[in-house]
Design brief:
It is built from 1 helix and 14 strands, in the order E-E-E-E-H-E-E-E-E-E-E-E-E-E-E. With 235 residues, the protein is an all-beta fold. It has a 5-stranded mixed β-sheet, with no helix packed on it. Strands 10, 11, 12, 13 and 14 form a 5-stranded antiparallel β-sheet that branches. Strands 2-9-4-7 form a 4-stranded antiparallel β-sheet, with no helix packed on it. The two termini are 38 Å apart.
C-alpha cells in the first residue's frame, strides 16, 4: 500500500460522474467489470477503514441479491496483481445517506505484493448492497477489473439425480460422475470463498482436496451452462 499524493491530481480531468455518488451507483449483477479510472465526487461514507486520511475520489456500485448464496466482490485477479493495482473496497447495507459498513478490504496479501481487495458476505434475498472503490493508495486514473460472483446452490437445467459424489466424507480424492461431460469443479468454503478450481473434460473426474483443511465444503460442478452444488466433508 503505497500512498501517493501530488498536486498534479488537481489538473487531471474528471471524465464521468455517472456512478460518482451512492445515489447514482451503477447496478451490477454477477460478472466481470472494468473501471477505467475513479472519478466520483462522493467519498465512502462512513469510511469503513481505520485510516486517518481520506481518499480523493471513489466510484459507487450496487448489487441486489436474488438468491441466498454467498457473494464475493473481488479485484484479486492476475492482471491487477501484475499491474500492481492497489485498491480499497467498502461494502455497505442500508440506504444512501444512512449506510452502515458491512465489510472492508484493503490488501489481499500485501507481503507478497498483492494489493487487491476481496470481500465475501452472505446476502439477504431482495436486499440491495452498495459498494465503493476508492483511490487511497493509487492515482485515480488507473483502470482495473473486478468480479462479482455468487455461490449458486442450484440452477435449472441440471438433473441432480444423475450426479454422484463419493466417498463422502472424503480423505483426499473425491470422485464426481454424471451423464454429461464435466467441464470443471470449483470448491468453496462455507464463507463462500473459492478455495480450489480444477478443469476437466470427462463424465467422471477426481477432485483432489488434499491441500484443504478438514471441514465442510461446497463443490460446484459445471457442465456447459448448467451448474450443481453439492456438500462434501473433508476428513
Amino acid at each position: 500500500m503505497k500512498k501517493i499524493t501530488t498536486s498534479l491530481l488537481l489538473f487531471l480531468p474528471f471524465l464521468n460522474f455517472a456512478q460518482g455518488t451512492c445515489a447514482t451507483a451503477l447496478p451490477v449483477t454477477v460478472g466481470t467489470y472494468t473501471n477505467n479510472g475513479l472519478t466520483g465526487t462522493e467519498l465512502p461514507t462512513p469510511d469503513c477503514s481505520d485510516e486517518e486520511d481520506s481518499p480523493f475520489t471513489a466510484d459507487w456500485y450496487s448489487f441486489t441479491a436474488t438468491s441466498a448464496g454467498a457473494v464475493t466482490i473481488s479485484s484479486n485477479n492476475q492482471a491487477n496483481i501484475d499491474d500492481i493495482v492497489d485498491t480499497r473496497l467498502h461494502v455497505y447495507t442500508g440506504s444512501c445517506g444512512a449506510l452502515t459498513c458491512l465489510s472492508f478490504s484493503d490488501d489481499v496479501d500485501g507481503e507478497n505484493d498483492n494489493y487487491t481487495s476481496e470481500v465475501t458476505f452472505t446476502p439477504t434475498v431482495g436486499t440491495t448492497y452498495y459498494f465503493a472503490w476508492d483511490d487511497y493508495w493509487y492515482f485515480f486514473e488507473t483502470s482495473f477489473t473486478f468480479e462479482v460472483s455468487q455461490v449458486v446452490l442450484s440452477r435449472d437445467g441440471f438433473d441432480a439425480s444423475k450426479v454422484s459424489l463419493y466417498p463422502n466424507p472424503v480423505m483426499n480424492i473425491v470422485t464426481v460422475s454424471q451423464n454429461e461431460v464435466i467441464d470443471g469443479v470449483a470448491v468453496y468454503n462455507l464463507l463462500g470463498q473459492k478455495v480450489l478450481v480444477q478443469n476437466f473434460n470427462s463424465n467422471e473426474v477426481q477432485v483432489n482436496l488434499e491441500s484443504l483443511s478438514a471441514g465442510a465444503y461446497l463443490l460446484e460442478v459445471a457442465s456447459g451452462n448448467n451448474h450443481q452444488t453439492m456438500k462434501v466433508i473433508k476428513k
